[in-house]
Design goal:
The chain has 21 helices and 13 strands. Strand 12, helix 18 and strand 13 form a beta-alpha-beta unit. Helix 17 packs across helix 18. By secondary structure, it is of the alpha/beta class. It is about 45% helix and about 10% strand. It folds into 3 domains: about 150 residues, Nitrogenase molybdenum iron protein domain (Rossmann fold, 3-Layer(aba) Sandwich); about 100 residues, Nitrogenase molybdenum iron protein domain (Rossmann fold), CATH 3.40.50; about 160 residues, Nitrogenase molybdenum iron protein domain (Rossmann fold, 3-Layer(aba) Sandwich), CATH 3.40.50. The strands form 3 sheets. It has a 6-stranded mixed β-sheet with strand order 1-11-10-9-12-13, sandwiched between helices. The structure holds iron/sulfur cluster (SF4). The site of iron/sulfur cluster (SF4) has 8 residues, from loops.
Length: about 500
């Protein structure tokens, strides 16, 4: 689907790429239905709380150094600002840089929701510019402004000429998508449409855009890429507006997670011809090698990449093979965003661990370029199948699955999900850091973390004995799709 940067609005993932949040079946069925276009998402008649897309979108933008984010909505919508503020300062300190980014809520009240508050918004934008001199100003909507039809685009157009830095309207009405990852696309759209400039003539670059969350492996990746004469530009955590304005000059774009980087990668390719590296991600051995080889191919550095792979294999593969002997036969349930679920499933398979059920917090039928996500394609081509569901972090469904399958361990990238597994007595690995399974070195460490968590289960067992969970036997006896809308519940099971 073409990316239209002339409009400030982005269509939701549901509408653009057919993403869903409700499905129960198996991987093969999920993929086949995606391919032929018959996959139908199911809604639930009961649902636990989920996340608002504005948290994803605005946290991405607030991670850029020295900008202002103005969240136009009731105070409750800006609640994520405290976490963002803290995280941004910590990440900047860790990197050894400073940031003066501010996150301002406009605190809409009842009167504003009746009479509108566009005038006040205009004043706030001018005041923020005067007080903080940011390098860019992102003005976001919310559910309340969306419902009353507050025209933030007009306000932004009105103040744009008075302010000499980019002022960008960002449409973050939480109600428009059930998929919080739509927020990533919204942030990318804002950057693509208002910050990124066309490549300067005659500028030669050895840079590669690397979209990630918190650049925790920055020094390590810089060192790896030196072997290929590539200089990674990490986005957006600690990026400057100046850096972002030149990402159209890079040799390629890659990312740590397809869910996070797909929109920007495709947008840069479509608009400026910067190739987007489309491969499975860097998790595990196969993932790391496939990803490096694709970078080598796209940037014309295949020889250097092969040399690096050979050297690193000699160091790490014997150690990984050794530890695999102890992992063989373990059974796991996994619950993560789709960018990781199907990648980590592949790694577990590599390590000899059986995935008995995989939950993805949403599922993208196809990516922006029309292809099935590479992680999914890999599993299918390699005949790997397991039971799977799509569930927007509905932990009651996770508990139902854990109770039935009694796996050796549960893996999730969301602490609010692992804590329930632990209360249930299931060992859990919190795959918190995005680089926790990156490349050979971290795959080895990941395998060791799994061993640690299953060797001593006393914490989970003791906690489970003392905690009274809110779930009844009735719920554990139900099929996990018991609350799916009866009109579109898929009943085929693999
Ligand atoms: S934008 Fe909507 S969904 Fe998001 S925090 Fe505000 S009210 Fe909640």
């Amino acid at each position: 689907m073409a990316i239209n940067t002339n409009s400030s609005n982005v269509a939701t993932r549901e509408n653009r790429i057919g993403s869903i949040t409700g499905y129960v079946g198996n991987l093969k069925d999920l993929a086949e239905k995606s391919e032929c276009g018959s996959l139908k998402g199911c809604s639930r008649c009961f649902s636990q709380s989920s996340t608002c897309l504005s948290s994803c979108g605005l946290s991405q933008l607030a991670a850029i150094r020295d900008v202002a984010v103005i969240h136009h909505g009731p105070a409750g919508c800006s609640v994520a600002s405290a976490g963002n503020y803290y995280l941004d300062k910590v990440m900047a300190k860790k990197r050894g840089v400073t940031t003066s980014t501010v996150y301002v809520g406009t605190d809409m009240n009842e009167q504003d929701t009746i009479f509108g508050s566009t005038q006040a918004l205009g004043k706030i934008i001018r005041e923020v510019n005067k007080r903080y001199s940011p390098k860019a100003i992102f003005v976001s909507s919310s559910c309340a402004t969306g419902i009353i039809g507050e025209d933030i685009d007009s306000v932004v157009d009105e103040v744009r000429d008075e302010i000499d830095v980019p002022v960008v309207a960002v449409h973050c009405e939480g109600f428009k998508s059930r998929i919080w990852a739509t927020g990533f696309d919204i942030a990318d759209h804002a950057v693509l449409s208002s910050i990124v400039q066309p490549p300067r003539e005659g500028v030669k670059s050895n840079k590669i855009n690397f979209k990630n969350f918190y650049e925790s492996a920055r020094p390590e990746i810089i060192e790896i890429f030196k072997n290929f004469d590539l200089d990674p530009v990490f986005l957006y955590c600690n990026s400057t507006v100046e850096e972002l304005s030149h990402i159209s000059e890079s040799l390629a774009t890659t990312c740590i997670c397809g869910t996070l980087g797909n929109y920007l990668g495709n947008g840069l390719e479509e608009k400026y011809g910067v190739p987007y590296v489309r491969s499975i991600n860097q998790c595990g051995i196969v993932g790391f090698e496939t990803w490096l080889r694709e970078i080598g191919r796209v940037t014309g550095r295949s020889e250097k990449v092969e040399k690096y792979i050979e050297e690193q294999r000699a160091i790490y593969i014997p150690q990984i093979e050794e530890i695999k002997k102890e992992l063989k036969g373990l059974r796991a349930v996994i619950g993560m965003g789709p960018g990781y679920t199907f990648e980590v499933s592949r790694v577990l398979n590599e390590l000899g661990i059986e995935v008995v059920w995989a939950l993805a917090w949403h599922y993208d039928k196809k990516y922006e370029n029309g292809d099935v996500p590479p992680s999914m394609k890999y599993l299918l081509e390699n005949n790997i199948n397991f039971e799977a569901s799509v569930s927007d972090q509905q932990n009651y469904e996770v508990m139902n699955i854990l109770h039935k399958y009694k796996p050796d361990l549960y893996l999730s990238r969301h602490p609010g999900s692992t804590v329930w597994a632990i209360k249930n007595g299931t060992s859990a690995v919190y795959v918190a850091d995005e680089y926790m399974i990156f490349g050979y070195k971290h795959t080895l460490e990941f395998a060791k973390s799994i061993l640690d968590s299953i060797r001593n289960r006393s914490f989970e067992q003791n906690l489970a004995k003392r905690v009274k969970l809110p779930y009844t036997d009735w719920w554990y006896k139900q099929n996990v799709d018991a609350f799916f809308d009866s009109n579109n519940t898929p009943k085929e099971r693999g």
